[in-house]
Amino acid sequence: MIPEYSDCALLVIDMQDKLLGVIPDDVRDALVDNVGILIDLVKDQGGSVFYTEQNPAKLGGTTAVLAEKLKDAIRVEKMSFSCLADSTFCDRVCPHIPQTLIIVGVEAHICVLMTALDIIDEDEDEEIAIFVPVDGVASRKKLNWENAILQLSNVGVITTNTETLVYQAIEEAGTDLFRKYSKRLK
User: What share of the chain is helix, strand, coil (3-state, %, to 5)?
Assistant: First the structure.
């Protein structure tokens, strides 16, 4: 399945320095790069971007490089692990979740997984296609990340990767978007 970019949003979950600090360095660096690419891609496609921060009073805000890209996005502070367990998220974001939702962030086996599962439970008519790029989510431990990806795949989430999402959006070589993103993916 290919995302419907004409009706697409990106949900960035808890990309905060304190949470990212426990992710292995090589994974964390690639994760931040990939999330940045996807923020730009969804914006370039005219989609909405939402983001959450888990208990920012204790964990701090979104990492600076992404915070700059998210300055015009809808931000929700939360205490719950699932975004849907937060009333502010449900009031401000849920009514605007489109046909295609890409979810990225940390930790894959906690907040990302619980949010995706709750969206699936709430989507009785199965109108929302959820995409999770495996290189756009992370956990402290590889085993937890692997388990989250397996669980997501088993419940109908489309697990993919950042490069595939980019090329599905730009569709052909030789365009300005191709030139912009092909350089960033190298």
Answer: 50, 20, 30
* Strand, helix or coil for residue 83: helix
Q: How far apart, in whole angstroms, are the C-alpha atoms of residue 115 and residue 133?
A: 15
CA atoms of 185 and 164, how far apart (whole Å): 10
HSE value, Cβ hemisphere, 13 Å, CA-based, for 25: 0
Q: Which helix (H) or strand (E) holds 107?
A: none
Residue 13 near residue 85 (C-beta atoms within 8 A) = no
Which of 4, 163, 19 lies closest to 105 in space, CA to CA?
19
Residue 13 dihedral angles phi and psi, to the nearest 5°: -105, 115
Structure confidence at residue 81 (pLDDT): 98
| pLDDT per residue as tens digits for the range 103-129 | 999 999 999 999 999 999 999 889 999
pLDDT tens digit sequence for 15-34: 999 999 999 999 999 999 99
* Dihedral angle of Cα 117, 161, 38, 110, to the nearest 10 degrees: 30
CA atoms within 13 A on the CB side of 60: 11
